[in-house]
Write a sequence for this structure.
């Protein structure tokens, strides 16, 4: 039995039946990482010592006959944007190359409390700004299905690690599609919960009003296990919330399930094979008895412009903290730059520490927020955001769930889109609307084109993650 | 459209050092991105309120309590700073000659 192929629930059962120990499981993954990481580059940091000590503790609990939680002893990879105390946390950026996290993110605290085994920190587009993994300051992650292709991004390493059995599951973050898009490209399951359902404390902020923490797993069942373990209101994150009480979390019987298909998601530019596979998946639900109807989300075409105004605006504010004074890369003590004043330290530390895409977004955002432009860009975008949200609210008056493609194409070649920022931004066309509206969505594999995975996106109403999981699971079980 | 002079001004506001070459590149790229943003002009938002948060949230208050672990925590944070003095962050002088 190859232990690295197990799902969370299978590994948990194996531990309970003493078919293998947590240490066996941990070592199997560490070996796999040793063999594969050079090629895939999913991990920036491998925390072997921490992982082994955590596994040992779980084995001691099992030996004493104590009950263990579902995630105890299960090896996890963590996106390098979430802080794990005393481990490096780089955000994929040179500016934090040597930054050691002084505390645990709330989601990490929750995982540790369950006895999770943390294998390491995964590669990512710098500060989560990118859709291909190519924007990491430390080098690109490769797609395990085709090493000449990107794994998607920005949770590039998290998706690649799970797809390549270098982790049983992973934590990622999603601001415009950064969990679901790489999951689609790597054939994994990726859940982006409702905004505020999971604490962002200890997550390095890119765009506060759109950042979500979620999970990348091998199965829908696992995605639910991880989500249930990390969710909840957190006193340390005042934007985290308890689920609203009138959320309809139970899925109706399949022959009463009403599925909406947004016509704006099957547009010119979508790969015809992606369209075919997604429509085939919808057919499957129809054959099982679900009612399928076309719906309209008329403001979809404005989502990317809206998104790429709001995101850089919040980025320009959030990136201000990297100033070469408090922490991170600094020219303060550099011998290369003599007789600097305070302004020089700001200018040079940020120029040398930030990568190209981060600099570009800081400039766009500063421009959009600058005097005389605020109303035309930021405020206008936030108003269009209301219309995008209302499109979904109206749709959910008629249907229980929405099905759509996760991405317009399968994984593209490394280098193919990197020189054209606008083309790269359009990768998020089917995923960003959910972040803008704050709705939960999951990407699950629904087929392959020439060995490249394609994702089906299941979109639910606010706080209806459970329904999203149930609907996704029906497809997974009947594939 | 955006001019090189504007890029220069914005870069200074953002405290971001850019070389001449980068500024020229930014000027071109930003112009095409801003042109793409023009698309939003098609949408009538005269009767629409902005959405700053997708999920309704309320102000969260807490007691102003003394944190007993403060010293231990601040030591950890100061350790991450490039230069410190007597438990404070050190910065370069604000004026060029340092005499003010």
């Amino acid at each position: 039995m190859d232990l690295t192929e197990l799902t969370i629930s299978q590994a948990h059962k194996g531990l309970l039946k003493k078919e293998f120990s947590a240490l066996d499981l941990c070592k199997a993954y560490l070996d796999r990482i040793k063999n594969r990481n050079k090629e895939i580059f999913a991990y920036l940091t491998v925390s072997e010592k921490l992982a082994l000590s955590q596994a040992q503790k779980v084995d001691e609990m099992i030996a004493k006959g104590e009950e263990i939680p579902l995630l105890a002893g299960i090896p996890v990879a963590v996106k390098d944007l979430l802080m794990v105390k005393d481990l490096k946390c780089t955000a994929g950026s040179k500016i934090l190359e040597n930054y050691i996290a002084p505390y645990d993110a709330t989601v990490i605290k929750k995982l540790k409390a369950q006895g999770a085994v943390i294998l390491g920190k995964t590669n990512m587009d710098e500060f989560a700004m990118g859709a291909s993994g190519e924007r990491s300051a430390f080098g690109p992650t490769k797609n395990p299905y085709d090493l000449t292709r990107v794994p998607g991004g920005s949770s590039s390493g998290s998706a690649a690690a799970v797809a390549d059995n270098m982790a049983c599951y992973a934590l990622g973050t999603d601001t415009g599609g950064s969990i679901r898009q790489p999951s689609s490209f790597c054939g994994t399951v990726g859940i982006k919960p409702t905004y505020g359902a999971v604490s962002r404390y200890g997550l390095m902020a890119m765009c506060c009003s759109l950042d979500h923490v979620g999970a990348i797993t091998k199965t829908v069942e696992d995605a639910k296990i991880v989500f249930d373990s990390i969710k909840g209101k957190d006193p340390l994150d005042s934007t985290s919330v308890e689920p609203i009480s009138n959320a309809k979390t139970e899925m109706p019987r399949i022959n009463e399930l009403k599925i909406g298909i947004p016509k704006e998601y099957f547009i010119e530019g979508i790969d015809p094979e992606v369209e075919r596979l997604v429509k085939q998946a919808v057919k499957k639900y129809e054959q099982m008895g679900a009612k399928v109807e076309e719906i309209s989300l008329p403001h979809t075409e404005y989502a990317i412009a809206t998104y790429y105004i709001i995101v850089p605006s919040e980025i320009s504010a959030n990136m201000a903290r990297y100033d070469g004074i408090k922490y991170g890369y600094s020219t303060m003590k550099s011998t290369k730059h003599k007789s600097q004043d305070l302004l020089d330290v700001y200018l040079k530390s940020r120029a040398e520490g930030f990568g190209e895409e981060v600099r570009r977004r800081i400039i766009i955002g500063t421009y959009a927020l600058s005097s005389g432009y605020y109303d035309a860009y930021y405020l206008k975008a936030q108003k269009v955001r209301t219309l995008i949200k209302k499109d979904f609210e109206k749709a959910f008056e008629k249907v229980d769930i929405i099905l759509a493609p996760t991405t317009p194409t399968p994984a593209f070649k490394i280098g193919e889109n990197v020189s054209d920022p606008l083309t790269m931004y359009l990768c998020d066309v089917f995923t960003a609307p959910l972040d803008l509206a704050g709705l939960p969505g999951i990407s699950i594999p629904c087929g392959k084109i020439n060995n490249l995975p394609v994702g089906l996106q299941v979109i639910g109403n606010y706080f209806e993650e459970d329904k999203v999981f149930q609907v996704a699971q029906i497809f997974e079980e009947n594939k | 459209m955006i001019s090189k002079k504007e890029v220069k001004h914005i870069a200074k506001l953002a405290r971001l050092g850019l070389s001449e070459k980068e500024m020229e590149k930014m000027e071109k790229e930003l112009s095409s991105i801003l042109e793409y943003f023009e698309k939003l002009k098609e949408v009538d938002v005269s009767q629409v309120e902005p959405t700053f948060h997708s999920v309704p949230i309320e102000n969260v208050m807490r007691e102003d309590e003394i944190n007993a672990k403060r010293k231990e925590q601040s030591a950890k944070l100061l350790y991450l700073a490039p230069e410190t003095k007597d438990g404070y962050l050190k910065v370069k002088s604000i004026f060029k000659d340092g005499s003010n």
Remarks:
- The first helix of chain A runs from residue 8 to 16.
- The longest strand of chain A covers residues 441-449.
